[in-house]
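Quick one: co-fold with adenosine-5'-triphosphate.
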Amino acid sequence: MSKPVLKISNVNKSFGGLQALRDINLEIERGKVHAIIGPNGAGKSTLLNVLVGLLEPDSGSVTFNGGINVIGKSPHEINQMGLARVFQTPEIFPDLSLLENVMIPAFSKRDGAFHFQLFRSLASETKITQEAKEVLASVGMEAKADETAGSLSRGDKRRLELAMCLIQHPDLLLLDEPTAGMARHDTNKTIELLKQIKEGGMTKIIIEHDMHVVFSLADTISVLSQGAIIASGIPDEIRGNPIVQEAYLGGVEL
Amino acid sequence: MMKRLMNIFKKQSDLTTILLFAAGVLTMPIWLDPIGANYPDLLQKFVIFGIFAVGYNILFGLTGYLSFGHAVFLGVGSYTAVWSFKLFTMNVLPAMLFATLISGLIAAAIGFVSMRRSGIYFSILTLAFAQMFYNLAYSVLIPITNGETGLQLRMHDIRIIDNYFSDPVPGLPSTEFFGMSMNGYSGFYFCAVVLILAFYVAMKIFRSPFGLKLKAIKSNQHRMRYIGSDTRPYLITAFIISGMFAGLAGALLAVTDPLAGAERMQWTASGEVILMTILGGVGTLFGPLIGVGVIKYLENIFSAINDAVLHNFFSFMPLWAENLLVAITAPFVGEGWHLTLGILFMVIIIFLPGGLMEGFQKIKTRYLTKSMKDSESTTKQE
Ligand SMILES: Nc1ncnc2c1ncn2[C@@H]1O[C@H](COP(=O)(O)OP(=O)(O)OP(=O)(O)O)[C@@H](O)[C@H]1O
Ligand SMILES: [Mg+2]
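Sure, here it is.
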């Protein structure tokens, strides 16, 4: 087995009396898609929040890319390490054009956390402009490149946010319900897109309620319930696991 | 023909923008003449406050951080410049350099602390700093500021450099730029050139990846962090740059009139630049300059209009109508110019939140679509 991209060990987090994460242990292998499923309020987003530096866990460790410690680092430092996230509610730059939305993460990646160069002309940034156009095209939004991002539909915002992460070519991409709030047609488009990226070999953690999406994309699945991982394995194991059936999949036709 | 002209305004290259701008600024004495604003004192104010506003817009317009304390840098710039005149030379170049540098340093300190907070708390912090400086100028800092009298030139100032090269002449010396006087029109043209340079710097920042990142911070700072940018140093840099612009403007105020007083640092002066920016159009390149024009015009021209002028203006009417119109308009001019400004400001905020620039934009698009339709219909007829 190759070295994991991400290693989560004994992570705990509680909010007042509520234990949102209980002793989480997880290893994500390079090039794999790992799905995290679980009912509402199970702690899925909380786990991602710990990974990107939004929350600090009460205890436990998270290491990235062969042992680099993540806990205690600022969000921008973690992103610079090669970890990008699509949020559950779209986080884009609503006042800027789609093209600019996608160019900015590319600048961040190239320039680092802070870069002081006042007089470089945007017009001369042909390489990144071109790249941004290609990434927009890959999510099917090149026609809207000059539109203001704030006016997009919710599904389009999500796709835009995905493009913003993709242009960074992260070592690990975190997707928090990438198809939530999308019409069926858009969901299918997004799944196709995610499948394509999967072939590209990008490591991903995906949180998803739609079992159709999960089983068609994931290499491995973990089930989270009340802050604890109650099962982890390849899709077939999860499908057949009676505890999982009871805790979460109960009513769902598989 | 009209279309070509419109295209020029649509997407200008850096060079055309700056050339058009320079032409506009340098010809101010011509096109401001018909509205009675062509006198050196006012022209100088237009361009100096133009620099202040253009710099302020780099902070407020690009990052959205609303500073209530930028007049501090105006004051610091003026004091520094006058000290440079007193200690070294009446040449304005060192004065401007020192002023820009020292206000940059003070901006770094204030920015470093204030940028720990955002939104209203940031504004309050900058306001607190400004009031602190304002009060210190009348107390602890009197050796530097000369308190209420203000800092002035004196006969026995050392002026090391000037006195080394030439014998002191009797009377107070006046500011100069390698022999060019800073009075009257030559003072205006000097400041105008500085404004053009300052505008060029601002334009380059607006149209750089750096400027785009500042806009991104304004739009969604959270996203900016999670996409790998450390937003704090960007914000502090923007704060320092706008502080330096303000310091430069303050120096020019002293260049055209070598006197510095603390009233320049009062919070109302900070408020004025906010008003100018919003009135003209936050975050647009030209908006703040238009705001400066409107406010300084009202302040200087409108405030000078009195009943006699009004009677003269309406004298073509029958006497009763003349009296009526004078009675109606009198509260809005002279001392009442603030009323006009207030109403104008409210109307703009309510109907054109993007400022006067948004108004121009609306007119332009309306005109453009109309002319496009016209040309379409003519081609159809053909
Ligand atoms: N910052 C916070 N402060 C307090 N409680 C929180 C915070 N974030 C999450 N919680 C609580 O922790 C629990 C887990 O929330 P989380 O958002 O991780 O759930 P989730 O699995 O992502 O659910 P969903 O499917 O609805 O997105 C919930 O009960 C939530 O109310
Ligand atoms: Mg969630």
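If it helps, The beta strands of chain B are 151-152, 176-177, 180-181, 259-260.
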